[in-house]
Queue: 2 jobs
Job 1
Amino acid sequence: MPTGTPGLDKMIEGGLPRPSLTLLAGEAGAGKTTFCTQFLCKGAELGQRGLYLRAFGGPPDLLINYASCYEFVKSTYFGQEICYMELEEMMERACQWQDFLDLLKSKIESIHPARMVMEDISLLEEILKDEYWRFLLKLSHLIKDNAIVALLAEDALPGAAYLTHIAQVADGIILLQNEEMNFTRRRSLEVIKMSGTSHNIGKHAVDISAKGLTVYPGL
Ligand SMILES: Nc1ncnc2c1ncn2[C@@H]1O[C@H](COP(=O)(O)OP(=O)(O)O)[C@@H](O)[C@H]1O
Ligand SMILES: [Mg+2]
């Protein structure tokens, strides 16, 4: 499945495997939301439905406003090819893992997305506690059963590259960085893992502009 990020697909033999679950990790400002928006918009351009789920996120209008800064975003995608939902209300009610999964299941069955993005889903760990791993396991099954290509975008914790619970169920791990180097910062992308794929390794230069995220393999 083409990612929509120029330069990346040729590093991973053409795109993300279908179905699969990929952890997209990186510190704040590294480009996770941009990457996810590009991924969903690429799908929309190809006529594929996308489900965009955030643990919390404020009004969808604001999200569309931010996204509209990018050239590849058409505001008509939102509400048509791209369906947005957030879990804030459910999180406040401290629901159980089955409730979150049932909600997702019914959404997936009604819109049949080919692509799915979930941002900050690890916040559920505090609510679900010991049941969090079960939720992740069932989520992974739900994604596979419905032939979905999913991205789970998560903030990487300082000193740790990515979250281990999600990494354990992930078929792929992509790391975005914005590292300080000689009083400036360098953006990079690294494919840590991509099951069944002969992928490039190491850090590759990244640029973010109005065209979104671009990767320069080999640079
Ligand atoms: N039009 C643009 N031109 C250049 N850089 C941009 C543009 N839009 C966003 N950015 C950069 O992208 C960053 C935001 O990336 P984002 O995808 O929100 O990161 P994350 O979700 O990982 O926190 C901004 O802090 C800014 O540096
Ligand atoms: Mg973000």
Job 2
Amino acid sequence: MTTSTRPSALDQRLFRASVVSSTRLTPNMQRVTVRGEELRAFPWRGYDHWFRLFFRCAHQDSFREPDIAADTWWKPYLAMPDEVRPYCANYTVADFRADAGELDIDVVVHRGADGETEGTVAIWACAVEPGEEMALLDQGLMYDAPADASSVLLVADESGLPAVAGILRSLPADMSVRVVQEVPAEADRRDLPGPAGTRIDWVCRTDPHEIPGTAALAALCADGTVDATGYAFVVGEQKLATEARRHLHRSGMPKDRITFSGFWKSARR
Ligand SMILES: Cc1cc2nc3c(=O)[nH]c(=O)nc-3n(C[C@H](O)[C@H](O)[C@H](O)COP(=O)(O)OP(=O)(O)OC[C@H]3O[C@@H](n4cnc5c(N)ncnc54)[C@H](O)[C@@H]3O)c2cc1C
């Protein structure tokens, strides 16, 4: 099981890389692969290892790295003029190959009311060309199960699918695991290698206008069984994260056995 979760401020450094490819993994997920000499040293720890992704905005001529020398790197970052300040967003390591210095990023391709791709990262991921420069800032793990956890429950919408996949691959082979994983469409389901006997409840949205996370929350709440001595990791749209935590706590799971994070917030509330 994991212990410390975040890199210390002293570890903080940018890993520069450039895009190798961008391909559609499933109908609503784009995989961007990046490569760089510096990435060979990226201290990947499996699980839900996440990072800040920096890249050039559409109106900028070139990629300018932020200065992350100080703990409070976001202050000089936010002070950068709009013409040069790179875009910054949070993403999970979908896969990592140290020998090649390669890292995969799985980006949800979400759409607006009339079906167009929306979101700066999704638009970037779908259009980016090989050679495009970018950088990563390591943020460590959020997954933080207590050593005595008798089981693991993972609940996520599609933005948490890379984290769920990474956690499943990292868990001990004998861990008892249940997953409630929402995806926009049946075809977004994928093989999720993990401990033998892992129970995976895929929840596919039937209404494309439904806010992501709603169906996963309903599926979780419909199943009354909660292992109070287990550990839960709940991520995705903000309401899924907060309401699932509330449900689990009310059902007997102590708060310190639940990691929850609103990965994004729907503007439709
Ligand atoms: C630790 C962490 C790890 C994450 N890992 C991943 C990851 O591996 N893959 C991934 O795809 N996302 C991941 N996310 C979520 C991602 O950071 C957000 O979805 C982010 O808002 C995308 O940035 P954007 O600039 O494209 O969209 P924004 O400019 O933030 O949002 C634009 C519009 O899109 C909507 N929106 C944003 N995200 C989604 C979504 N997923 N579905 C539907 N509508 C959305 C917003 O509500 C808003 O209306 C992670 C978040 C965190 C905190």
